[in-house]
Amino acid sequence: MMFKRTLLAAVVGATMTGAALLPATASAETTLRMAYDADPVSLDIHEQLSGGILQLSHMTHDPLVRWDQDLSFEPRLATGWEQVDDTTMRMTLREGVEFHSGNPFTAEDVVWTVERLKRSPDFKAIFDPIASVEAIDDHTVEITTAEPYPLLLNLATYIFPMDSAFYSGTDEDGDPKDEIVKNGNSFASANLSGTGPYTVVEHRKGVRMEFERNPNYWDGDSPGNVDTIVLTPISENATRVAALLSGDVDFIAPVPPNDLERVRESEDAKLVTMSGTRIIFFHMNQERVEAFKDPKVRQAFAYAVNQDAIADRLMKGFATPAAQFSPEGYAGHIDSLERRYDLEKAQALMEEAGYADGFEITMMAHVNDAKIAQAVATMLARINVDVDLKTLPKAQYWGEFDNRAADMMMIGWHADTEDSANFHEYLTACPDADTGAGQYNAGNYCNPKLDKLVAEANLEVDLEKRAEMLQQVEQTLYDEAAFVPLHWQDLAWAAAPNVNIEPVLNVMNFPYLGDLVVDEAE
Amino acid sequence: MSTETSLQPTAALPSRWARFRDSYLLYSFRRDLIAQVSLAVFIAFVACAVLAPWLAPMNPYDLAQIDILASELPPFWIDGSDPAYLLGTDAQGRDLLSTILYGARVSLIIGFGAVALQALLGVVFGLLAGYLGGRIDAFLMRLADIQLSFSTLMVAIVVGALVKAIFGGATFSAYAVPLLVLIIGLAEWPQYARTVRASVLAEKGKEYVDAARTMGLPSRRIMFRHILPNTLSPIFVISTVQVANAIISEAALSFLGLGMPETHPSLGSLIKSGFDYIQSGSWWITLIPGAVLVVLVLVINLLGDWLRDVLNPRLYKG
What we know:
By secondary structure, chain A is of the alpha+beta class. In chain A, 28% of the residues lie in helices and 22% in strands. In chain A, α9 (295-304) packs antiparallel against α11 (343-352) and α14 runs parallel beside α16. Chain A starts with 7 loop residues before the first helix and ends with a strand.
């Protein structure tokens, strides 16, 4: 559900900008103080499939491969890969890599990690295509899929090998150390050992997180010269921007749309923006609200929401209004799908469905999206739907989301595999706890035909045919108004002028902070 | 109150109006420009608040009237404004003028409602404690001490959270005004109780009370008909201060998201909603309601000041 991409370009970019080619050996300690809207909910990188967790993963772990800025694959812990047959890929692993704990990194850790991913309620759905992983020797693994699967390398960007020895055994309470507990306490949620460029020194939830450069980091070519990173969550948008402009922090994300101009014009900061692929939308929970079972009611909701107005007024044009999941460039994207704001039609549909007088619903959103949610509530008032809106901080919101605690819940999703199928698998597939399908489907929309179609599309090697199938899914979701789309959110980061963030940023919104170069302040 | 000044030797008692006309209260009011201006502004506020549904160009609490395409319009003196929205609009497209009128209404209802509740509790407890003394006094005053050790905000947070948890957010939104009256009223009664008790202790020993007691009047009558009228001056003075305090408390709670719901913005929640925009151009969303709040509280405080001077016998004689 989040974002992802690469580093090669980052490395090249950084060296070209002419800073120092040599890894910084300056004696002065370089500290990066950064502020996000929230800190990671846990130190267990398999607990939640979220942007925050994956951003953490890129700081404390390394993936097998990662995306570079051109969206091609860059080797990380895997140095090479070859397709052995239709369903098997052999990966050669990097040698001489150590975990933070001092344990050596071997093929067994990869096997252990993938097996754990397949147990994780959040991750299991994307790892479902993988049938087995086998260690051939200490530095070779073979990944076997049940059927030919074209997106295996995309998946490998989500495999951040964990320290299997470190997480084996039981903790003081007798619970297994590798246990995955959502929104709860476990050994893994408080202890971390990866291979990544940073180790976690301190994690005070919601207050402060401190990282220190891993002295034994394997990537000697990384230009990164930051010794200490202090992450402070600042959920209040205006406060976060003020903290950057006043010099309290060096790097912030996200930058709220109404402050973009101010940051762009400031001499104390530089702004980096990218057109995003993250879809923001509302689920309509059919299990909680009988009326949502009627496609007419769902369509009425879709017709009542004016995406263009929200993108224009609230996002200040810093978003692309959407009518479907897939952004342009994705296989499932259908050019002809129009945004369908039409109030009269919406009212007519409500009347046809027998709800001319409307009904009451509850709505939940993350505090930073409060304005968008309020605007949607206002629009729904026109079809006589009375909305009880509650906005929560991120840490609490995800718990409520997992409990499906409101009739309409807002969520943003970036396709984990950079592919349309991922949207359906997580957001609109019939929920199934065993396979992890529909893990973030807070609408309980279920159309088995679509599930079958997506499953078939995943096996389709003919890319044109596959795109056709995925488009058919998108069209059906649109026709049945499975959700209320809002927009694809653009991305924005800002940093102090001496922090070279451009080379480490990407559209997945996974800053590769290990390669970040900070010039010495004058 | 002891400000009657019937100096005429005529036998017939002057009418109430005549007594008022000759009173020191009116005399001092006529000579005090600040008090006159404050009262005029205050009356204007009350009038606006009462007449809000007729004065306001739109109903800011009716979501169906809000158009997001009209969001963040500036007030009339700035380029780009729309004459339909004199003071501009907020980020959701709500007319600021209308929202301020309705918000002032909420502020005043909560201000006076909360003070009425505080006064009721405070006067009853204060009279009982002061007149009866002993264990009742000790109990009520310890209760007041405990109550004072919780700040209004804390009481509001706890009560608000409880109500939301038990009855749900929709119920809280629907009953936000009475709940805020209850919260602010309950949190601040000790101010009254202590003042009244002190006055009662001073009055209790006086001859007219002894006289009333010798006549065999019941305690209740002595407390409410004989002692209470003589303790009213400080009550009036505290009341003005407390109204201003209650209005500020409401604004603070709403600013923190614990008061009026986002769909029914009061002055406090309006100030809060504009906070994100204050440095990015749309300053009016916060500053205009902020200025209105300051003026409202200021005139009430000025009136209170004046009233205190008038009712203070030492200043009056001097």
